[in-house]
Amino acid sequence: MDVSSQIGLMVINTIAGLYLFIVVLRFLLQAARANFYNPISQFVVKATAPVLNPLRKIVPGFGGFDWASIVLAVVVQMLAIGLSLLVAGYGTPVEKIIIWSLLGTVGLFLKLYFWGILIMVISSWIAPQSSNPALELLHQIIEPVMKPIRKVMPDMGGLDLSPIIAFLLINICNVILANFVMKTGAPGFIIGL
After folding, report:
1. 12 with 187: CB under 8 angstroms?
2. Is residue 190 a part of any domain in this protein?
3. CB burial class (10 A; 0-12, 13-18, 19+) of residue 178?
4. What CA–CA distances, in Å, run from 138 to 68, 78, 92, 149, 189?
5. Cβ atoms of 139 and 120 closer than 8 Å
């Protein structure tokens, strides 16, 4: 692959990756019933509204989840993969691009939770009572996943080991996902994998 192809892939992955992160965050904000008056939430809503509002007319929400956000994430992933393959000079059937997009979106959720939990653990050591809007929002997104784990865990006298269990579960999901990715022959530039 020549230099211009590498630069093209880097630009596509950076722009698509940032927008995918915002779209996945929009889904998680609504799923977790996070505070939409948070300044970061307001940014996420404004950044995704121009595309999501028309898409919601076609893909309605169901079960309290914003399925239009998931559809948008998969479509953005498909566009990023298609453009990346075009820049790299590869040709691939559309079915594989759809499968890779779904796998990449799942991987993006796993990465977001992994890094979110890690940030929450570190911030609890450094600034346990912080009222930073980003940390408050992250706590609201992460807590619905951590709460069921905490209910199952025995009381450890103030020591919270639930992040270790969450990391273990995320890594198990990553191993399963990596197995699927290997079977599909996905290229290495898919966002989230």
Report:
1. no
2. no
3. middle
4. 22, 27, 37, 17, 27
5. yes
Band of residue 22 on the pLDDT scale cut at 50, 70, 90: very high
Q: What are the residues whose beta carbons fall under 8 Å from the beta carbon of 50, sequence distance 6 or more?
A: none
192, part of any domain: no
Amino acid at 59: V
Total domain count, the chain: 1
Q: State both tokens at 41.
A: 């939430």
Cα–Cα distance list, 175 to 18, 64, 68, 109, 171 (Å): 24, 29, 28, 14, 6
CB 98 within 8 A of CB 83: no
Is 50 inside any structural domain?
A: yes
What confidence tens digit (pLDDT) does each residue in 132-169 have?
Answer: 888 888 889 999 888 898 888 877 777 778 889 999 99
Residue 138 inside a domain? The answer is: yes
Expressed as residue numbers, the domain containing 122 is: 3-184
Are 42 and 36 within 8 A, CB to CB? yes
- CB-count exposure of residue 133 (10 Å: 0-12, 13-18, 19+): middle
Residue-wise pLDDT for 73-91, tens only, equals 999 999 998 888 888 777 7
